[in-house]
Write a structure and sequence with these properties.
Length: 72
Amino acid sequence: MPTNDEVINALLDKGASANDISDKIKDMLFVKSAKRVDDVKQDVSSSLFADQETESEPETANEVDQEEESND
């Protein structure tokens, strides 16, 4: 991952091409965004699966009630 100093040096370097500078900036932004996604991924997945577990519990209770009614 290019550091901020490397990007600034590339900007100040008159011999650096625009593509090189652009690539360094893109690499830096990609790494930052990947880190943010990794940081949030655990929270999102736990909240998503926690909601599914609480929703599935009432369904099983309804199935038991339906079986008891059909047996009567």
